[in-house]
Structure prediction request, 206 residues.
Amino acid sequence: MAKGDKFYFENFAECAHLSKKAADYLVKCMEDYKSENITKMLEEMHEIEHSADKKKHEMHEALAKAFVTPVDREDLDMLSHRLDNVPDKIEEILQKFYIYNVQSITPSAIIFAKNIVKACELLNEIMDEFENFKKPKKIHELIIKVNDIEEECDKLYLKSMRENTKNSDDVLLTMSWYKIYGCFEACIDACENVAECVATVIMKNT
Prediction:
């Protein structure tokens, strides 16, 4: 591998690490949730998200200057965008807690958040292995595991939405959790989108 090519794979690995950091922090916030601390939570989460944005901008700058890239530059740009979308979606969950003045966390929400951590752990493994994309067996196995987590979350989403509708007499609270569960679902989809993007890059370049 050319020395300059190392930057791209290191950047992706750092982005995946920040996604995992955001997911871990989300679980920490939810397991010891106090609504009066939500502003501080948002500030700390935004610092993580902002660090991820910086990595995306570094990738854009490198791609703009590069003459040759290890894979198609449009693919690298697309993967950078999809990786950055994960911490964006994690931050959005916490923002919804603030917007809807959430006072307590449901058990299903914590399960959802822990599944996002698992998906982000797999994205870390995928990105650590990505420079070996021409020998993709291990990466493909990891991608399948991300898909499995997404399917689990689809079932959890349906179950949570049904319980939310069936068990609450508070219309505002019901609608609030309707939106929040939608954010969880969008977040796990964002993780799967990263994995699928990697699969597409491998298919095009091997």
